[in-house]
C-alpha cells in the first residue's frame, strides 16, 4: 500500500456511516491482530536451534548456541567439545584437563518461545563411576541426569527467554572425559514478529478512532485497554509479587552475655596446628544453584584458557567502551588513614586456641559512638577510632553467643561451628548487632540435619558491654526440599525493620533450594523482647534472580525511603548465566506493621537493564615467598586466588539512590580480561502500586594488568563515599585499596591504603587443603558510612605480620572522610 492509497483509506474510514465504522472497527481489529501475529520470517524460526555439524572446542559459538567451559585452571588443556552430526542430535564432551579441579562444559541457548523442552539422552565415560556427570540446564539451574553410564528421556515446560541446554563434566578432572549424546531434541520456536500489514492496520484503527464522537468514547477506552494489554504482554519489567508469613517467635531470646566476663587471655606460644583439624570455611560459593554437590567446594570459574566465549567478548567490551570506562590511576599510599586489624593468627588463637584454621576471611565492619567493631570468620574485636583494641583480647564468636568452643583442643570434642560473620551498628536504635549461622554437628564433628541462625544485639550503645542473644531454627523441615541451612546471610535495615536474607541449601545434598528474607522489628530487638515481631518470605527459584538477594542499608544520617507504610529495597543479579545485563530490584512495603502483633508485609520484584557483567576467572598474584607452599611434597606453585562470582557485594540506600557493586570480568586498557567491579546507581520509586528503578549512573572499576577483588561501596547522606577492594596481580601482592566515589560521577583513581607485602600462602590453595592451585579469597569486603559522613572499610590483604603455619591473611581497616 503506497502513501496515496493509505491516505485514501484514512479518508474513507473517517467518512463512512457510523454502523459501517463500528463494523469496520471490529473487522479491522481482528485483521490487525491477525496481521500482528503473522510470521515475519518462518525460516528464521526453523533455523533458530540449528547447531554446527563441525566439531567445536570451548569457548565457541554456533548460531544462537554458546559452548563454555567452567572450572579447570588458566592455560590448561582438555577443553570440552560439541558437534551435531545430524539434525536433532548433539554430542557433548565435558572438560577434563587433568587439573583435579571440578569443572564442566555447558552448551546453552535461550528458549525462543513458550512450550516444551524435550530430548532423549545417553551418557558414557571410561572413568570410575560418579567421577563424571552430565545433565541439562533449565532456567539456568543445573539438573544432573547421570554420573555414570545411563540413558533416558526428559520433557519439561519452558518459557521464552529461559536458558536451556546441556552440560557434562567431572568432579576430579583426572583426564578421562564423559560424553553426553542428545537425540530427538526439540524446543519451542520463536514467537512470530508482527507483519507489516498488521502493524499498518493497527495504525489505521488508532487514526480512524481519533475521529469518533463522545458516543463511542467508552468503547474506545475499553479497546485501548485491550490493545495496551496485548502490546505489553512481553514487557520485561513485570511486577512480581510475593506474600509471606508472620513468624513472630521463630527468632527467640536465648539469654544474655557480658563481653568482659567472656574474654580470656591468648594461649602463650601456640602456633603449630594439627593438620587433621585444619578446616576450610563450610560455605558453598556457587555462582548459581548447582544441581549436585561438588567434592571440592570451589567457585565457578571462567573458561580455562582465559578467554570468554565469543558472546561475552562481543557484549562486554563494547559496553565497557560505551560507558567511557578507562583504567583507574593507582595512587600508592595516598588518602585516608587506617590500621592493621584481625588476622588469621588472631582468629586461630582466640579463646586459648580452641578454634579452627579458616580460610578465606570475610571481614565485616561497623562504626559509631566512637567505636569500630570488626568481625572476621569466628573472631571479633572492638577498636577506638585510632585503632587501639578496646577488648583485652580477641573474642571468638562462640564466646559472644555463649557457646562452647568450636573445638576443644584438649578433649578433641567439637562444639558449634559458626560462619559468615556480619556486624552492624544501627544508629536509629543505638544498638550493635552480630550475626552468624551454623549447621549442627555432634561432638565428633559429624554434621546433623539441623541448622540455626544466631543474632547478638547489644543492650546499649557500647559494643564492649552486654548483648542479648537471639536464636532461630533455620532447618525449615516444613519445606519438602529441606532440612536446610541458611547460607550467606546478609544484613539490611530501614527505619522499622532489620532484614536478613539467605540462600537455603539442603543439608544432605547441598542443592540450592530457595531464598529466604526474614524481617524483624528493630524496636522489639532494642527492647530485649523475648519474641520480637518477625515476618518471613520464602522465595522459590524461578526467574534466576532469587539467588543471593541483598538487602539495602540506609547509613547513619541518611533518610530512609518513606511512604507505603515503610519501604525497604533489595537487589540481586541474574545467577542463571555467566554473562548477563539485568539486575532485579525488590521492594518490601508496610514494614511499619512490624510494630503490631500481626505484621503483614508485601514484596515486589522487577528486572532492570544495566551494563553487562560476567563471571570472573581466577586472579594471578605477584611472585614471592610461600613457606607453606614450599613445604608441600612436592613443593607447590604460587596460588591463584578465586575471583568469586557476580552476586551483589554491597547495597546502600542514600540520597534517594540505591548504590550497588558486583564483581565482573572486564577488558582492561590493553585488551586483557581482568577481574574488576561494576557499580550501578539507581533511582527507585514505588508509587501507585508500581515499582520502578531508573539507572542514574553505572560503570566499571578496574586497573591495567591487575585485579580488583570483592568491591564493596558505601556512600553517606550526600552521595559521596568509597568502593573498597583488594588489589592483586602480577605487580601487586594482595593489597587493601579503595576508590573515591560519588553517586553522579565516574571514578578515576584507586588509592592503596595498605600495600601487600607477601603472596597469599594459605592451605585452601594447595592439594593438602583441597584447593589444587586456587586459594579461597574473602567472600566479601565491607564498607559502611558513619553518622559523621566518613567511610569505614574492612579489606582483606596480606601484610608482613606473624602468621600461623597454615595461613597468612590479614585485614586492614580504612577510614576516609570524603
Q: How many structural domains can be distinguished in the coordinates?
A: 3
Could you give the distance between the termini?
A: 64 Å
Say how many strands there are.
46
- Let me know the average pLDDT: 80
Largest sheet: 6 strands, antiparallel
- In the predicted model, the low-confidence regions spanning at least 5 consecutive residues are 1-45, 192-236, 264-323
Tell me the Rg in angstroms: 28 Å
Number of helices: 11
Shape: globular
Q: How much strand?
A: 35-45%
Helical content class? 10-25%
Structural class computed from helices and strand pairing:
mainly beta
- Strand line-up in the sheet with most strands: 1-4-5-12-7-10
Short description:
The protein is mainly beta and 818 residues long. Helix content is 13%, strand content 40%.
Amino acid at each position: 500500500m503506497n502513501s496515496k492509497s493509505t491516505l485514501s483509506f484514512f479518508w474513507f474510514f473517517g467518512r463512512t456511516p457510523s454502523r459501517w465504522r463500528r463494523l469496520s472497527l471490529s473487522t479491522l481489529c481482528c485483521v490487525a491482530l491477525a496481521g500482528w501475529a503473522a510470521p515475519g520470517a518462518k525460516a528464521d524460526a526453523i533455523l533458530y536451534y540449528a547447531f554446527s555439524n563441525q566439531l567445536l572446542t570451548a569457548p565457541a559459538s554456533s548460531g544462537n548456541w554458546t559452548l563454555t567451559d567452567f572450572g579447570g585452571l588458566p592455560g590448561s588443556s582438555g577443553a570440552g567439545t560439541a558437534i551435531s552430526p545430524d539434525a536433532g542430535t548433539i554430542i557433548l564432551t565435558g572438560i577434563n584437563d587433568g587439573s583435579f579441579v571440578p569443572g564442566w562444559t555447558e552448551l546453552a541457548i535461550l528458549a525462543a518461545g513458550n512450550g516444551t523442552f524435550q530430548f532423549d539422552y545417553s551418557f558414557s565415560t571410561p572413568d570410575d563411576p560418579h567421577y563424571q556427570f552430565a545433565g541439562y540446564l533449565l532456567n539456568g539451574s543445573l539438573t544432573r541426569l547421570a554420573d555414570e553410564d545411563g540413558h533416558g528421556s526428559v520433557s519439561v515446560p519452558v518459557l521464552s527467554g529461559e536458558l536451556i541446554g546441556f552440560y557434562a563434566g567431572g568432579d576430579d578432572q583426572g583426564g578421562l572425559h564423559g560424553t553426553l549424546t542428545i537425540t530427538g531434541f526439540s524446543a519451542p520456536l520463536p514467537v512470530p514478529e508482527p507483519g507489516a500489514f498488521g502493524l499498518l492496520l493497527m495504525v489505521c484503527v488508532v487514526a480512524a478512532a481519533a475521529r469518533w464522537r463522545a458516543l463511542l468514547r467508552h468503547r474506545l477506552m475499553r479497546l485501548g485497554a485491550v490493545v495496551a494489554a496485548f502490546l505489553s504482554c512481553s514487557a520485561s519489567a513485570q511486577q512480581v509479587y510475593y506474600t509471606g508469613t508472620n513468624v513472630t517467635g521463630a527468632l527467640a531470646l536465648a539469654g544474655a552475655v557480658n563481653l568482659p566476663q567472656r574474654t580470656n587471655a591468648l594461649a602463650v606460644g601456640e602456633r603449630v596446628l594439627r593438620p587433621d583439624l585444619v578446616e576450610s570455611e563450610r560455605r558453598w560459593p556457587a555462582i548459581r544453584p548447582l544441581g549436585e554437590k561438588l567434592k571440592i567446594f570451589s567457585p565457578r570459574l571462567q573458561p580455562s584458557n582465559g578467554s570468554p566465549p565469543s558472546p561475552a567478548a562481543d557484549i562486554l567490551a563494547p559496553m565497557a567502551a560505551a560507558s567511557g570506562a578507562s583504567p583507574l590511576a593507582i595512587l600508592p599510599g595516598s588518602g585516608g588513614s587506617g590500621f592493621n586489624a584481625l588476622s588469621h593468627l588472631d582468629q586461630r588463637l582466640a579463646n586459648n586456641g580452641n578454634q579452627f584454621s579458616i580460610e578465606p576471611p570475610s571481614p565485616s565492619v561497623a562504626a559509631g559512638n566512637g567505636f569500630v567493631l570488626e568481625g572476621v570468620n569466628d573472631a571479633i574485636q572492638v577498636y577506638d577510632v585510632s585503632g587501639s583494641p578496646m577488648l583485652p583480647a580477641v573474642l571468638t564468636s562462640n564466646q559472644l553467643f555463649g557457646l562452647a568452643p568450636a573445638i576443644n583442643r584438649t578433649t578433641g570434642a567439637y562444639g558449634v561451628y559458626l560462619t559468615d560473620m556480619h556486624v552492624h551498628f544501627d544508629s536509629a536504635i543505638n544498638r550493635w548487632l552480630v550475626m552468624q549461622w551454623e549447621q549442627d554437628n555432634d561432638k565428633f564433628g559429624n554434621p546433623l540435619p539441623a541448622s540455626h541462625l544466631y543474632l547478638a544485639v547489644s543492650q546499649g550503645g557500647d559494643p564492649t558491654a552486654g548483648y542479648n542473644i537471639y536464636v532461630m531454627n533455620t532447618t525449615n523441615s516444613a519445606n519438602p526440599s529441606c532440612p536446610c541451612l541458611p547460607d550467606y546471610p546478609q544484613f539490611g535495615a530501614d527505619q522499622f525493620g532489620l532484614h536478613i536474607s539467605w540462600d537455603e541449601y539442603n543439608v544432605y545434598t547441598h542443592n540450592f533450594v530457595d531464598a529466604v528474607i526474614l524481617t524483624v522489628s528493630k524496636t522489639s530487638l532494642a527492647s530485649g523482647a523475648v519474641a520480637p515481631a518477625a515476618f518471613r518470605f520464602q522465595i522459590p527459584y524461578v526467574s534466576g534472580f532469587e539467588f543471593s538477594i541483598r538487602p539495602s542499608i540506609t547509613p547513619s544520617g541518611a533518610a530512609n525511603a518513606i511512604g507505603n507504610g515503610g519501604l525497604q529495597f533489595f537487589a540481586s543479579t541474574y545467577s542463571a548465566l555467566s554473562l548477563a545485563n539485568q539486575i532485579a530490584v525488590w521492594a518490601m512495603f508496610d514494614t511499619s506493621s512490624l510494630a503490631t502483633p500481626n505484621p503483614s508485609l508485601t514484596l515486589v520484584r522487577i528486572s532492570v537493564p544495566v551494563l553487562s557483567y560476567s563471571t570472573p576467572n581466577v586472579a594471578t598474584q605477584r611472585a614471592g615467598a610461600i613457606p607453606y607452599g614450599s613445604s608441600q611434597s612436592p613443593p607447590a606453585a604460587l596460588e591463584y586466588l578465586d575471583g568469586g562470582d557476580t552476586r551483589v557485594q554491597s547495597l546502600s540506600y542514600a540520597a534517594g539512590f540505591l548504590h550497588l557493586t558486583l564483581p565482573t570480568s572486564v577488558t582492561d586498557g590493553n585488551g586483557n580480561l581482568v577481574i574488576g567491579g561494576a557499580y550501578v546507581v539507581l533511582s527507585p520509586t514505588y508509587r501507585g502500586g508500581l515499582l520502578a528503578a531508573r539507572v542514574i549512573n553505572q560503570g566499571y572499576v578496574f586497573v591495567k594488568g591487575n585485579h580488583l577483588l570483592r568491591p564493596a561501596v558505601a556512600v553517606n547522606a550526600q552521595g559521596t563515599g568509597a568502593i573498597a577492594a583488594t588489589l592483586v596481580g602480577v605487580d601487586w601482592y594482595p593489597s587493601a585499596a579503595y576508590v573515591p566515589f560519588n553517586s553522579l560521577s565516574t571514578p578515576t583513581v584507586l588509592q592503596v591504603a595498605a600495600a601487600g607485602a607477601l603472596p597469599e600462602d594459605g592451605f585452601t590453595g594447595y592439594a593438602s587443603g583441597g584447593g589444587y592451585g586456587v586459594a579461597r579469597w574473602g567472600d566479601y569486603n565491607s564498607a559502611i558510612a558513619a553518622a559523621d559522613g566518613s567511610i569505614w572499610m574492612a579489606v582483606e590483604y596480606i601484610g608482613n605480620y606473624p602468621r600461623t603455619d597454615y595461613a597468612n591473611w590479614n585485614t586492614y581497616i580504612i577510614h576516609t572522610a570524603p
